[in-house]
Design brief:
Blueprint: H1 12-35, H2 41-70
Length: 71
Amino acid sequence: MEEIGQASATDPNLLDAKIGQAAAELDRVQQQERTTREASPAVHTLQGALLTDAGRLLADLRSGRQSLART
């Protein structure tokens, strides 16, 4: 992730790979969250909200990346 956001151009393939890795990690964490019931309901609610936000951010990154690739 160190290249992303720097003044130099980010390699599109690297960016796609990083987004893919983040999406895979998010899937893993979401699956783990679904099977772990040790925390209180309030904790699960907060974790669910944060995971949903992370998923939306990744979708926005992927969508924005695809839009830039078309221009």
